[in-house]
Predict the structure.
Amino acid sequence: MPTQFQIESIGLAKTCFPQKFGTPRQAGLAKGCLGKIIFQNQNDITSMLDGLKDFSHIWLVWWFDQNTNKVLKSKVHPPMLDGEKKGLFATRSPHRPNPIGLSVVRLLECTKDYLLVDGIDLVDQTPILDIKPYLPHTDSIKDATATWPLDKNQNRLSVEITSSLEEKIKHFENDIRKEYNHSLNLKEAISNILSLDPRPVVYKEKPYKDDYKIAFYNFDIQFVVENNTAIVKDLLLR
Ligand SMILES: C[S@@+](CC[C@H](N)C(=O)[O-])C[C@H]1O[C@@H](n2cnc3c(N)ncnc32)[C@H](O)[C@@H]1O
């Protein structure tokens, strides 16, 4: 009989990704993707956080609460392997026996009510189970290897954002500054997430749509992909 445990979330992540589509496939891939970890009724939170701001990066341990799969598959298609299947435990698939996510993010601000982080791969309202400091002396393993094509810059798209969108970008930057109390270069952030090529792998060769929409902060990025370039058509307030 498997041992059972009871787990309660310590908070919720408010993030720039209202939906799964467009959320980076791994943390730290796109700068400018902000999230706030907001604590829920956590006694002694100020004491628990004491010392955390001494670390530039933290681990978030979280729950894939938006999984919709009904059955668990033992083999999955990692996006970077062009259709090849691998065992679930060799991947970072959200669909696991215990759907627990693990993300390293940059810690920008640590207050008694929330943590502000950058480089997030969680959708909005994801439950947070735990927070740990990233320890460079042990978590960064210099001789670690993987034979899969995991290069951060592999298969990146070029991104074009026309100067006619500058006004809108300034406007949304202002909204984000108010919401997160933090300034960011939004044009760069949009470019970062589109360069990751958010399209589902199966549709890259044979598109099922002419244009795509990613929900980002309080607006939608409308874009098309032509010759390995993502071209932003419009930014639309949601
Ligand atoms: C491949 S997983 C990797 C997550 C984590 N870095 C890990 O390795 O455990 C990242 C994807 O999870 C999905 N995701 C993010 N938040 C989620 C949530 N709350 N529930 C279900 N899926 C989520 C998004 O589609 C995102 O692109």
About this structure: The mean pLDDT is 94. The helical segments are 45-49, 136-139, 166-180, 186-195.
